[in-house]
Amino acid sequence: MYSKFFVSFVCLIMLLSACSPAAPSTGVPTAVADTATSIPPKPTSTRGPTRTPAPTATLMPLELQKIEKVRDNCSQKDIDLPNERLRPVAYFPSGFCFHGELDLFETGGHVYVAQVIMSLFPNSAEAFRIIDVTDVEHPALVGAWQWNVPTYTADIKAFRQGERWYLAISRDPNLPETTLKPLCNLVGGVVIVEVTEPASPKIISVLNGKNTGFQVEWCRSHTAEVSRDADGNGAYLYVSAIDHFDLRVLDIRDLGNIKEAGRYTHPDAGFYNARNQFFVHDTTIVGDRVYISYWSAGLIIVDRNQLEAGKKVTPLNPLDSIDPWGMNIHHAYPTTDGNFVFVEDEFKADNPESRLRLYDIRDLESPKEVAAITVPDAWGAPHNLLVSGDLLFVGWYQDGVRVFQYDTSDPEHPSVTPYAYQAVRTELTMNPLIRFVDGIWGVRVHDCMVAGQPRTCVFASDLTWGLLILALEP
Q1: Is 10 helix (H, G, I), strand (E, B) or coil?
Q2: DSSP letter, residue 242
Q3: Which end of the chain is more exposed for a tag (fewer CB within 10 A), N or C?
Q4: What is the pTM of this model?
Q5: pLDDT tens profile 306-355
Q6: How far apart are alpha carbons 361 and 111 in whole angstroms?
């Protein structure tokens, strides 16, 4: 995720967090229409002075608009790049030059990818596209959509309730508070979009601190995650509230009445200087545990039930107990058995030290680092993680999709070994819009059929090129 111009706060800490320059102190934002009318005086026995009321501002409603014109920019990717156990199945460009997070959902017997898109940085009208990947060898565009007001679309997560499917879309604008507050529903918050009919997405609501029951409004959401009930229905939405440097938990079981249910705030939450920024970057929810990547504060593990019940949250691990020196924790994911957790920093170090570590958390009172994972001669650092079975999938920026096999059957001697990879660049590159990093943002996995054979497919979001579909060979 990328930085913005939020003082120096977001400038080094959140790669890809949209930066919009501060609005001028005079004039009205483009999303606001001024109206001024003269009210004629009513007939009276004593004529009073005529008054013209001060101009009023009327906000336009937030809308999703289908993008009709297909572009052809940033689509000529390198081919025949090195790989092992991962084989290219399909490549699907968008014509846009920025692609962020992606997620999968299934409805009507089809499998779809929803992927963030932008044509400008740091602010863009484009929001996301939906691709039918039921036939992974022949993906098909369902459509691409944009907001009616530019912002930074920071994250996208899919969830269902019954037979209906939704996207939770985080937006993280960088505007002065006085400008952002009246525009929050237009440019910020988390937008819930129904995609049960993928060709006709519909905005259900825009969530922020003001309309979810918090006395101080949050508006900037860098990431979000959804916890699910026993039936797999979306139950709670976890929001990284950048405005307040903490985690908000919203009860979304009734989409017509969404309210804040709980929150966790680190005792040191806030921005102090370039090396000390305590804010929630991301969360991972597995079982009854929530893994909070709290940047300079390291990884905080909390009890999901405690958090969703609105109780006072006491971390399960001591503060600073999973906080490797020189690393800011950007994302984390536990092993399938829950006894270990991977943590990573998205910024490459000046020296060859590892930006991906494994911690033993069997004793949560005393976590210990047990492995440091590296990619030889890496151009970049890891970005987002995903654990499936005994495999760790990593979007490793310019170094492509990296898959590691871990073994914790002997917990005293765990191992992590390279298993598969797909290179995505022949040389170090920068995304043409942000000119900082490039390559793979994140991955998702799903069962698929390739050449009539069952496989596990890896769907990878490439910052510049778009969607890569790979098959993991047995």
Answers
A1: helix
A2: G
A3: C
A4: 0.88
A5: 999 999 999 999 999 999 999 999 999 999 999 999 999 999 988 889 99
A6: 35
Please state the rounded mean pLDDT for residues 7-16.
35
H or E stretch at 86: strand 86-92
Tokens of 251: 């009860």
- What is the pLDDT at residue 175? 86
Task: Give the whole-number percent of the chain exceeding pLDDT 70.
Answer: 87
As a whole number of angstroms, the distance between CA 51 and CA 39 comes to 7
Provide the token pair at 418: 């390279």
Half-sphere exposure of 60 (CA within 13 A, CB side): 13
323/307 Cα distance (integer angstroms): 22
Q: Tell me if the bond preceding 93 is cis, omega within 30° of 0.
A: no
Nearest 10 degrees: CA dihedral of 283, 284, 289, 294? Answer: -30
Look at residue 428 and give its three-state secondary structure: coil
Cα pseudo-dihedral 255, 249, 289, 374, rounded to 10? 110
**Burial of residue 36, with CB atoms counted within 10 A of its CB: 0-12 exposed, 13-18 middle, 19 or more buried:** exposed
Q: Which residues contact 369 (CB under 8 A, 6 or more apart)?
A: 324, 357, 358, 359, 360
CA dihedral (295, 298, 299, 301) in degrees, to 10, reads: -110
Q: Look at the block and give the residue holding tokens 């200087």.
A: 273
Question: Per DSSP, which regions of 178-274 are E strands?
Answer: 189-194, 202-207, 221-228, 234-241, 246-251, 259-264, 270-273
- Residues near 30 by Cβ (< 8 Å), separated by ≥ 6? 149
Dihedral of CA atoms 118, 123, 124, 128 in degrees, nearest 10, equals 50
Per the CB < 8 A criterion, the answer to whether 225 and 283 are in contact is yes
Q: If pLDDT is split at 50, 70 and 90, which confidence band does 214 have?
A: confident
Tokens of 155: 């994250």
Three-state DSSP state, 170: strand
Which of the pair, 177 or 287, is modelled with greater confidence? Answer: 287
Distance CA 74, CA 188 (A): 27
pLDDT of residue 53: 56
Say if residue 368 is exposed, middle or buried (CB neighbours under 10 Å; 0-12, 13-18, 19+).
exposed
Q: What is the pLDDT of residue 51?
A: 54
pLDDT of residue 266: 98
Residue 395: in which H helix or E strand, if any? strand 391-395
The DSSP output letter for 81 is -
For 435, the enclosing helix (H) or strand (E) is none
**How many secondary structure helices (H) and strands (E) does the chain include?**
3, 33
Parallel, antiparallel, or unpaired: how do β-strands 340-344 and 331-334 relate? antiparallel
Give CATH for domain 62-472: 2.130.10.10
Whether the predicted pLDDT of 117 surpasses 50: yes
Give me the pLDDT at residue 58, please: 60
Domain boundaries, the chain: 62-472
Residue 305 token pair: 């039930």
| pLDDT number for residue 47 | 47
